[in-house]
Amino acid sequence: MATENVSDEEALPPLPQITEETRPFWDSCKEGVLRLQRCSDCSEFRFPFSVACPNCLSMSFRWEPVSGRGSIFSFVTFQRLYHKAFASLLPYMVAVVELSEGPRLVSRLAAVKETDSVKCGAPVKVRFEQLSHGLVLPLFELVGEQG
After folding, report:
1. Which one of 10, 12, 114, 139 is most buried, counting C-beta atoms within 10 A?
2. Taking the model in full, what pTM does it have?
């Protein structure tokens, strides 16, 4: 039986490209806080990041913390391996999470057991996962009714 050699690069998950525009988001994740852009003129939160508000076209914004709570808008369970870095996670769920503040984020659902009943509308909260490369990812986990 031949063993397959996996390079260090192949074993790493695809990582986000951190730019000067997105650095405040990633820095706040390292602090354990979820922050999003908020328009200084109309007060709408926005995600993904943009230079102009999609609601009022203002170029003025600030980074503000959000609750990190929301609900599952949509989800999928991955049973098949599409990238070697995720082999140990199979099966895993990826969800579109609608935050209480409105924006939707795509993220992996953490700490989900196969016996868990995951449904659209289920309440979730953010949790942060430190990767070995110094990057901290916002993931989401299910919360009970007492959440």
Report:
1. 139
2. 0.84
